[in-house]
Amino acid sequence: MASTIAFGDTNSGLEAERPETLPDPSAIVPFARDLDFVERGGLLDQIHQKCAVPGSRTALVGLGGVGKSQLAIEHIYRTRERSPETWVFWVHASSVARFEQSYQDIADQVKIPGRTDPKANILKLVRNWLHAGKHGPWLLVLDNVDDTHLSPETGHSGREVQRIGIDSVNPQPISAYLPQSQNGSILITSRSKGIALKLVEENSIIVVEPMAESHALAESHALALFEKKLGALGDRSDITELAGALEYMPLAIVQSAAYIHQRAPRCSVRQYLEDFRKSDGKKTSLLNYEGGQLRRDWEAKNSIIIT
Fold it and tell me: In angstroms, how far is the first alpha carbon of the chain from the final one?
């Protein structure tokens, strides 16, 4: 909490915040780096090239479970390795409440003056801080953008809605709280190209496929991911067959590998594949297994099931 100083009798009741020292640039990322991350062609190079352009906005678009967030996470850690002076901020954009909380976390992390004022508009404070261009380079990641408007959710009081800056009558677009600044770049993940196009240009969209454009590359990447997650638990031919049955979807591969690994030796790759093919109900049950995904948003629905 910010320290305060009183000005004496002539300014009775008035207090002023003591200026806080700006902390060194850091990364606000809710997920640890995945040491089993598998390179997927030139996707990370594309992301780096687009995000390296000052003031750029880039969107990763693809079906749920293709690995958009995983790519964003790996890009963040590589950005920090290349440029330790770069601020990195992660914003959960799946709901109004989480969007606002993420902005509140940013305000606290960088110690934006006025953030503790009950009347403060946190969304605007953060946007203006990023826009100012005097705090060093930054990267802002908006994860799971599936709606471009911020509408008050049930449970928000009138005072809270006013404080976070959401218009209950005319919902504001997310873009109203994104800075236009040459000092940083914005990376967005979304399932919808239409939604992404409301925030970025057509040529700033990177389409993320299940694993790769060609069958050979998809199989190679899927095998590499399976082998990192399973080790020596599976027969290569069985793993290849299972990867194909899962349509080379990274999330499905990670979930199935976790299921098999936690049940070995009672469950093998071959047995999982046979169960997977028994019925749609069994397939849904297996794909619904979360397995404690450490780099998966706890609030996200099971992407594989609802796609």
Answer: 44
- Cβ count near 84 (within 10 Å): 11
| Predicted TM-score (pTM) of this structure | 0.77
SS3 150: strand
Which CA distances in Å does 37 have to 69, 76, 84, 268? 12, 13, 21, 23
Distance separating alpha carbons of residues 247 and 249, to the nearest angstrom: 5
CA atoms of 184 and 173, how far apart (whole Å): 20
pLDDT tens by residue, 64-99: 888 999 999 999 999 999 999 999 999 999 988 999
What is the rounded distance in angstroms from the CA atom of residue 18 to the CA atom of residue 185? 31
Dihedral Cα 108, 111, 112, 118, nearest 10 deg: 50
Q: What are phi and psi of 17, to 5 degrees?
A: -70, 135
Residue 307 DSSP SS3:
coil
